[in-house]
Input
Amino acid sequence: MARTLPPDLARGLLAAGQRIAAAPPSSVSDTVRAVAALQAQDAAAAALGIRARRPGSTLADVAHARFEERSVARTWVMRGTLHLIPAEDARWMVALLGPIGLRKSARRIAELGVADARPAIRAALADGPLTRRELADAVRSRGVSMADHPQAPAWLTAVAALQGEIIEGPDKRFVLSDDWLPPSPAPADPVVELARRHAHAHPPAGPEDFSAWSGLGLREARRAYAELDLEEVEVLGRTAYLPRGLEPAPPHVRLLPKFDSILLGHRDRSLILRPEHDKAVRPGGGILAATLVADGRIEGTWKLDRGRPKVTPFGDFDYAAEVADVERFRAT
Output
């Protein structure tokens, strides 16, 4: 019979899986790998997510990993959304998840005329990196009939990245994936490997959570979770799974950024977010607010006010050290 996890213990295990207050990974790329991915449509927010999981990190560390080591990549993968992922995994993750994002947005892609630009993109980038605007102009000059719409350049780059052609390089310029990414083999079963990473990063979780996080269908998600060696548990009345031997994170208070991955790994957020606080954290328009997390539960929100974190707590918490560290990080 599956054991029942008290909610406090389950939150501690999730915090451990998300590397919040647990033993810190040794590098930026290890941090990203440990949490499966960090959502990164806001690149500055994703960098703050690394700060919260790797004490002492600097902005320079993140930039070094992305643009000098090339060990971390920012591209469109889960749910067709920008994430930071290990660069060595970019090819197989895009091959697995890119088609899902393309199908999801097929109508808009067709409307903007950006579906069939791959030869022109490869030719345009053969001479070096280009911004999205420069790339759009170069593609048009090669005969691609893109719509005259302000969103067309952004969609062009997203589509090309989902097709595996390009990746973001330095200075908000795009480069050919073959010129930037390291050669690396795909796992024998990419769906199972992605499920394994999800299970270790977001415990306790189940195939429904994996499907919601990845964008993969529920049948594939169930097949993949069934292949994993996980302990079955019950939490808040539902069946979930977690890695064997996982220890909960110690007591902690952290300031997490907008769109943080702790909010994105589960279909249902009730374990970490009380209903009365949902509107503050999810104000609408697809926004997920920056949050104060204490012992795995969301206990406030925050935003930058004249460069300093302004925290709106839901209770009495000591977050002064986190405010100071966010300021330190942003200054590095």
